[in-house]
Specification:
Elements: E1 13-19, E2 26-28, E3 35-37, E4 48-57, E5 68-73, E6 89-94, E7 102-105, E8 123-128, E9 133-135, E10 141-144, E11 156-164, E12 174-184, E13 197-203, E14 211-216, E15 228-233, E16 241-245, E17 251-256, E18 267-276, E19 290-300, E20 307-308, E21 312-318, E22 326-329, E23 332-333, E24 342-346, E25 356-358, E26 364-367, E27 378-387, E28 394-404, E29 412-413, E30 419-422, E31 430-437, E32 449-452, H1 454-457, E33 462-466, E34 471-476, E35 488-496, E36 504-516, E37 522-524, H2 538-570, H3 605-610, H4 637-650, H5 700-711
Parallel strand pairs: 6-12, 13-19, 21-28, 30-36
Antiparallel strand pairs: 1-4, 2-3, 4-5, 7-10, 8-11, 9-10, 11-12, 14-17, 15-18, 16-17, 18-19, 20-23, 22-26, 24-27, 25-26, 27-28, 29-31, 31-34, 32-35, 33-34, 35-36, 36-37
Subcellular location: Cell membrane
Domain Cadherin: 4-84, 85-193, 194-308, 309-413, 413-531
Membrane topology: Single-pass type I membrane protein
Amino acid sequence: KLHSDLDKGVGTVKYTLSGDGAGTVFTIDETTGDIHAIRSLDREEKPFYTLRAQAVDVDTKKPLEPESEFIIKVQDINDNEPKFLDGPYVASVPEMSPVGAYVLQVKATDADDPTYGNSARVVYSILQGQPYFSIDPKTGVIRTALPNMDREVKEQYQVLIQAKDMGGQLGGLAGTTTVNITLTDVNDNPPRFPKSIFHLKVPESSHVGSAIGRIRAVDPDFGKNAEIEYNIVPGDGGNLFDITTDEYTQEGVIKLKKPLDFETKKAYTFKVEASNLHLDHRFHSVGPFKDTATVKINVLDMDEPPVFSKPMYTMEVYEDTPVGTIIGAVTAQDLDAGSSSVRYFIDWKNDVDSYFTIDATEGTIATNELLDRESTAQYNFSIIASKVSNPLLTSKVNVIINVLDVNEFPPEISVPYETSVCENAKPGQVIQTITAADKDLSPAGQRFSFKLSSEATNKPNFTVHDYRNNTAGIETRRNGYSRRQQELYFLPIVIEDSSYPVQSSTNTLTIRVCRCDSDGTIQSCNVEAIFLPVGLSTGALIAILLCIVILLVIVVLYVALRRQKKKDTLMTSKEDIRDNVIHYDDEGGGEEDTQAFDIGALRNPKVIEDNKIRRDIKPETLRFPRHRPPAEDNTDIRDFINQRLQENDVDPSAPPYDSLATYAYEGNGSVAESLSSIDSLTTEADQDYDYLSDWGPRFKILADMFGEEESYNPDKVT
């Protein structure tokens, strides 16, 4: 209620209200100043309101007093129950936990004013879940209420929690939530075999490493606490078997470590121990966390393939052994109760296996072809044995045959040597070390011996020194060698091996004489160097070679100029009736040169038509010495020409080698007639050869020949 001191109760004062909630939540009587709430208030929504009030004159509308501010506070009542904002809850606690073990803390919230009365004071209690768990009324902490709760008995628990305000008094509001509690596993149970003896039946044909059976121990725990390790207790038959744990099923898988044989032993007995891998020391007092069971294995008899006496056979045979020679045998037996006969045969894979045969009944291996160690030193093939009663049961064994060497190849010098000796070599100087090689397979300790052949023993040039370690040295036997006298020496060396029968060969070593300096360093081994003057320097040799080249160039130029001049002299004019004669300035290519000119134009047409047979001649194999006749025998130039012609005809080294072409036809109707003096009517007495002396040095030989012929006259007496 608002009231102004100026209000006399005559209705001259008017009250107004403004501020938070004016007109919507609160209203004021303008005449009396009474303030009323026009709707319900909620403290949890808005705990207080701030308003402003003023008294004004009804007539003048002017304020009678200054505006005043006041606060309306909402009084709380218990109209909100406690609420679990995080519920429902999930919690866990290890099994076998002691009483009072902490599980979880719950918390309820009350929206009422905690500063006014007990509306917000909450008390916790368990409505469902006793006697297993308890809760603190003030803090809401949940704890275990029973000892040794076993997960294997009951794993899940649902607890109903209540929170009540007003301190839990009658008339208070309450709220509830659910807590799901799970007991987690601990290793409080050892593994146990469901039975004490396990019986297994295993065929004797089971392969090594294969699983032959499974056993299982039961552990009620969960997860890693239920992991089991199996071990075979040492005892009867335990060394033939092994056991591992299947990580998915926690079963013990028994595997075979060694082959079984029904004929040797029919049953095995051993013990298996199962234990936990992860132990909890809190439960050691319960007892040992392991269990033991007995395993009995009965071996079943199976029809097995034959068994060879050896896992592999190795045999030896000499090369070139006659076909059909027995070199060894293999043996296989049927070890089953009803022993069956065995048949043998070669496992054919390639053509190499055809070199041997095997007796199907006895198992003896013999050669089928001649063997050559140098071609194949070792043969590797397989022999298969099968039972007669059941041919499908077979076994295989590997056979290795080594071909032994027979000494059939002589030793030879291992590599071709390029041996040289200095001209200034001294006696006893080693100029080459040689080794030998043998194509045969040399046995251990085989030696090669070296010596000179019998024909070279007495020559005083070189000798062979056998070092007796399969090497030998070539030594000089004289003081100095001369390339001018002999450039190459051929030294025959005999090499023998030590095998039986002894094989030997004679090898020729070529030794070249070279020029060396005083230290023995080779300077030159060329043949041309023999004729060079001793002591010439390199510069002098180069100068001599340059001079020779210059002289050759001058001679070539001179010959070329002479040929050009001669060509110009022999060329005839276009009006000459002999202009169809072609001049060739080259020597031609012989019979094969068919492009240079037509050889038929130089032959007599009549002779060509009459005789078209080639007049080829085959050169004789004999070589006649060519000698120049003495000047006093040149009585006739025709005899001289015929003699030269005969020499060239019988000389196979003079070209052409395969044909003889004659040019005896000079042509018909020549205006100049014949130029030959053979058919001339003029006699030798009418000829004067003095003019030959005036023709220069090129005709000096002819001038001397015919001049001597005139001076020599046997009819004249002086």
